[in-house]
Q: What sequence folds into this?
């Protein structure tokens, strides 16, 4: 069926008194309303403190549940709970027991995507997006024939769309994890300074992390969230070492691992925590200054090509054009 046939088919089934122009106006109004609603929702001022409080309350209840209930009781309760359609599909395909599951879960945690069904949603979208995008591309290219292309070109475009859809969830998680790690690395020196102040005030490690998380809640929510979860795990987990190691695993950056190593050594050998944190904070600030100096040193080389492409041609035109015009006038007068 051609595009004209589809238009005629739709026009025959419109309500009386409504033509194609009316249908187009209606769809335009609906799309405009949807766009305005999306912009309003995006610009709506959210309350990050309330969202983080709800998320941390959920984490606290989950940790308390893991501590107070036996493993057999948790397994029995999980069997009683209703299983979603996505999870049933993944269990039928035996994808939740894959060797890559732990690696994917770690990547999701590093990207800040937490929850009991985060892994299920990720695997389901990774499984469902390629066929969905492939079907849409096949319909647009072969059925509706929107673009006059050769058969081989259509096949290549459809295959490229399927491959892009297959890697889209991984790319999204990787980009989210990179942005979160950059935010954590940027907030680490300030968090260490606050930890030094709390250590010199005589607070315990749990109270230190909780206090610093409260102070950083508005300016640096990523670091505040990680420190809050760590303080909760220090109170619930039987081994304090495991809580600190979980912090290093969730962050996935060398700076947090260095902080965790310092805290573990201070608890194990009784070394002065304030002095160790002060030295660590000075090192991280020096590293941040070094990275800023490296970016500033690369700036001239990065600006060379844009200056050649965007500055030199207009400059040459401005300098040469008057001479060319004068030569043309002289030639015409002769």
A:
């Amino acid at each position: 069926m051609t595009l004209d046939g589809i238009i005629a088919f739709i026009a025959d089934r419109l309500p009386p008194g409504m033509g194609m122009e009316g249908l187009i106006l209606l769809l335009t109004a609906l799309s405009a309303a949807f766009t305005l609603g999306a912009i309003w929702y995006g610009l709506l001022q959210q309350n990050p403190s309330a969202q983080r409080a709800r998320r941390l309350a959920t984490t606290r209840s989950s940790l308390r549940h893991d501590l107070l209930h036996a493993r057999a009781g948790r397994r029995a309760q999980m069997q009683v709970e209703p299983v979603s359609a996505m999870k049933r599909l993944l269990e039928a395909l035996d994808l939740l027991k894959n060797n890559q599951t732990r690696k994917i879960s770690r990547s999701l945690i590093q990207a800040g995507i937490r929850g009991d069904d985060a892994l299920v949603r990720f695997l389901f979208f990774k499984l469902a997006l390629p066929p969905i995008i492939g079907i849409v591309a096949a319909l647009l290219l072969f059925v509706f024939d929107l673009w006059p292309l050769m058969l081989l070109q259509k096949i290549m475009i459809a295959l490229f769309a399927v491959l892009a859809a297959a890697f889209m969830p991984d790319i999204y998680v990787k980009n989210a994890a990179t942005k979160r790690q950059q935010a954590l690395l940027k907030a680490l020196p300030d968090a260490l300074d606050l930890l030094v102040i709390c250590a010199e005030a005589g607070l315990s490690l749990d109270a230190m992390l909780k206090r610093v998380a409260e102070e950083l809640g508005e300016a640096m929510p990523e670091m505040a969230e990680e420190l809050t979860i760590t303080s909760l795990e220090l109170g619930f987990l039987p081994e304090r070492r495991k809580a600190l190691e979980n912090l290093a695993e969730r962050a996935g950056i060398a700076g947090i691992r260095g902080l965790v190593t310092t805290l573990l050594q201070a608890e194990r050998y009784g070394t002065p925590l304030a002095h160790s944190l002060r030295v660590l904070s000075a090192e991280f600030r020096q590293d941040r200054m070094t990275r800023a100096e490296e970016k500033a040193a690369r700036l001239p080389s990065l600006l060379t090509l844009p200056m050649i492409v965007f500055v030199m041609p207009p400059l040459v035109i401005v300098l040469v054009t008057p001479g060319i015009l004068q030569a043309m006038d002289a030639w015409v007068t002769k």
User: Anything to note?
Assistant: The mean pLDDT is 77. Residues 180-292 form one domain. The two ends are 68 Å apart (CA to CA). The CA atoms of residues 79 and 146 lie 49 Å apart.
